């Protein structure tokens, strides 16, 4: 029996494809990583079919690459790094299994996007813990698995947030549930008042950490429970802007130390203009009217006396802001804070905001602390000059994480994919820039593509541990081989 026939028995003939056009589409993204064409695409609809495909892959020793988000893809994590791979496209699995308002948690399958989840959460009086304006086709589950930073540092208690419990088909073909979902059936847990909100376990082992950030190299997650927040009754958003970046850093630390704020992040004028504009000319025009740096900050009130809560917090926040010689404003040029708040509470309109400036982009992102970000910005600007890339065209996004103790530092480098010379120049610039960021202290906790070379270059003990764990949970090394240090 050939590959097509075996997979057809598992998922149905209409959900297996080896058409050339489809294979080419799944073999490429905008990462500039060399293309390797898969041998087929399979689209399961539930956990039983996923498990069947993984067991088939073990039997035939076929590499498999799981995908949850729709195109376009940008980082090389969803394209094969080995010949003869099968793509497991999980976008048919679109159930919002459960929404629990009391415990502020939602259980979703891999194919659920933010545009699908947000209205359902709103009906229950909840809202997701959003990353920065994700693309329309982005999977909610994938965002949590890939540790995409959320906009709410005061709700970010540790690096796994907002991921709670998961159901996994490990590379061995075994089904496993993590955390408080591990004992009994889900229905039994719900009947007893359980809500799958504790990620650690079973016992003292935190199995979810094995698959978070693993780029599909350990197993396939078939559902996850995700932390949410109450939908606010009152919200006040404003800008704190300056050309003196250092003053924003000190202010941000002070606000977070005082436990103030919901959304709290810093953008340079280029990125803010990209988010609010529809194309290149609009971006340039708006960017010229904006200050160099903007801290976007919001306060929310819910429950009893929401107006009073927002008012006393706003009074305290404004006093702190003024003590740093800065001002908060509801308006910035032609931009209103309320409008920005509405935009960042949902996915990006098409085209995706990072594509609007030139049609393609490369990201450089890593973890550091907020006080060290000026050194990284200075170095990236220096490299941009050496590669004749306009510094004004570099987008910067700084997101405090884990109560402000860490910071996600991100640079967005746009380029025209139709211009081969520019594409090659940006590829070299980003490659050199990424390594330079690592050398001066950037921690690449999500090492896509060639970032793995310096992320694991001197981490011999980590590589040995990873391979031991890989041999346990994926003994035949079928799960997305070639990623990380595999």
Description:
The protein is α+β, with helices and mostly antiparallel strands and 486 residues long. It has 4 domains: 3-89, Uridine Diphospho-n-acetylenolpyruvylglucosamine Reductase, domain 2 (2-Layer Sandwich), CATH 3.30.43; 96-230, Uridine Diphospho-n-acetylenolpyruvylglucosamine Reductase, domain 3; 234-344, Alpha-Beta Plaits; 358-439, 2-Layer Sandwich (Alpha-Beta Plaits), CATH 3.30.70. It is 34% helix and 21% strand. The chain is built from 16 helices and 19 strands. The protein has helices spanning 3-11, 20-27, 47-60, 114-123, 140-145, 186-191, 208-211, 245-257, 269-276, 280-287, 306-323, 337-344, 373-386, 420-439, 451-455, 460-473; strands at 16-17, 40-42, 64-67, 86-89, 96-100, 105-108, 126-128, 163-170, 175-177, 219-230, 234-242, 264-268, 293-301, 328-329, 331-332, 335-336, 360-368, 394-401, 406-415. Strands 14-11-13-12-18-19-17 form a 7-stranded antiparallel beta sheet, sandwiched between helices. Strands 5, 6, 7, 8, 9 and 10 form a 6-stranded antiparallel beta sheet that branches. β15 (331-332) and β16 form a beta hairpin. α13 runs antiparallel to α14 (420-439). The longest helix is centred in the C-terminal third of the chain and has 20 residues, at 420-439. The chain is globular. The protein starts with a helix and ends in a 13-residue tail after the last helix. The relative contact order is 0.12. The model has no long low-confidence stretch (mean pLDDT 93).
């Amino acid at each position: 029996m050939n590959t097509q026939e075996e997979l057809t028995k598992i998922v149905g003939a209409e959900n297996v494809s080896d058409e050339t056009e489809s294979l080419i589409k799944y073999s490429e993204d905008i990462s500039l990583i060399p293309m390797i064409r898969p041998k087929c695409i399979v689209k399961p609809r539930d956990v039983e079919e996923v498990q069947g495909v993984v067991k088939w892959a073990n039997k035939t020793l076929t590499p498999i690459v799981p995908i949850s988000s729709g195109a376009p893809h940008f980082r090389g994590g969803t394209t094969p790094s080995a010949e003869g791979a099968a793509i497991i496209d999980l976008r048919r699995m679109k159930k919002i299994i459960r929404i629990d308002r009391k415990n502020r948690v939602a259980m979703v399958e891999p194919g659920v996007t933010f545009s699908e989840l947000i209205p359902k959460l709103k009906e229950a009086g909840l809202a997701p813990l959003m990353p920065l304006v994700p693309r329309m086709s982005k999977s909610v589950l994938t965002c949590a698995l890939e540790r995409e930073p959320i906009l709410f540092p005061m709700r970010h208690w540790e690096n796994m947030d907002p991921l709670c419990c998961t159901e996994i088909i490990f590379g061995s073909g075994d089904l496993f549930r993590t955390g408080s979902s591990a004992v009994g059936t889900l229905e039994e847990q719900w009947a007893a008042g359980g809500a799958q909100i504790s990620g650690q376990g079973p016992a003292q082992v935190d199995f979810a950490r094995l698959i978070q950030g693993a780029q599909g190299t350990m197993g396939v997650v078939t559902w996850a429970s995700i932390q949410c927040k109450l939908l606010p009754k009152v919200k006040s958003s404003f800008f704190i802007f300056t050309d003196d970046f250092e003053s924003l850093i000190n202010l941000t630390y002070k606000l977070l130390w005082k436990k103030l704020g919901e959304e709290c992040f810093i953008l340079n004028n280029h990125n803010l203009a990209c988010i609010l504009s529809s194309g290149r000319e609009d971006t340039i025009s708006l960017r010229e009217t904006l200050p160099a740096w903007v801290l976007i900050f919001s306060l929310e009130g819910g429950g009893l006396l929401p107006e009073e809560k927002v008012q006393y917090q706003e009074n305290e926040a404004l006093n702190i802001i003024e003590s740093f010689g800065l001002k908060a404003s509801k308006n910035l040029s032609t931009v209103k804070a309320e409008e920005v708040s509405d935009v960042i509470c949902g996915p990006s309109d098409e085209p995706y905001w990072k594509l609007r400036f030139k049609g393609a982009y490369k990201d450089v992102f890593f973890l550091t602390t907020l006080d060290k970000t000026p050194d990284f910005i200075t170095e990236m600007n220096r490299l941009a000059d050496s590669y004749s890339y306009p510094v004004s065209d570099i987008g910067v996004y700084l997101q405090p994480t884990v109560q402000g103790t860490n910071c996600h530092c991100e640079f967005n480098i746009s380029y025209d994919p139709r211009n081969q010379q520019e594409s090659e120049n940006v590829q070299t610039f980003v490659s050199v820039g990424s390594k330079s960021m690592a050398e001066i202290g950037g921690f690449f906790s999500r090492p896509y593509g060639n970032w793995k070379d310096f992320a694991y270059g001197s981490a011999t003990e980590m590589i040995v541990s990873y391979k031991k764990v890989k041999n346990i949970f994926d003994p035949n090394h079928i799960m997305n081989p070639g990623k990380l240090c595999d």
